[in-house]
Specification:
- This protein is α+β, with helices and mostly antiparallel strands.
- It has one domain: uncharacterized conserved protein from methanopyrus kandleri fold like, CATH 3.30.1860.
- A hairpin with a 2-residue loop joins strand 7 and strand 8.
- The chain is globular and about 35 Å long.
- It starts with a strand and ends with a strand.
């Protein structure tokens, strides 16, 4: 399983944008909500599941989209089911670790 990621620093914290690889480049919409899963935001490189786990565990700010990505964060105890939002049945979750 692979994920598409972009890692950057934001206010001296590690920020991770991560999505399921098949969502990269797509736009999802539902009612007034629109989300573009752009290559410029999520597409710096492809990583395997082990690297994705490490990035999720070591990042302070995480923007994630997709069933596999969000499920992995829940499995690692990083994300919470109550924080998950969906657009057209695609889950997304934003995490701020303090």
């Amino acid at each position: 399983m692979q994920f598409s990621v972009k890692v950057s620093n934001y206010q001296k914290k590690l920020m991770l944008n991560i999505c399921d690889i098949e969502l990269l480049g797509k736009q999802i919409s539902q009612d007034e909500l629109n989300l573009k899963i752009s290559e410029s935001y999520y597409g710096e490189k492809l990583v395997d599941i082990e690297e994705a786990k490490s990035l999720l565990q070591n990042s302070s700010i995480i923007n994630m989209v997709g069933k596999n990505t969000v499920s992995l964060s829940i499995e690692l105890g990083i994300g919470s089911e109550s924080g998950i939002k969906t657009i057209s049945d695609i889950p997304f979750l934003i995490i701020f670790k303090v």
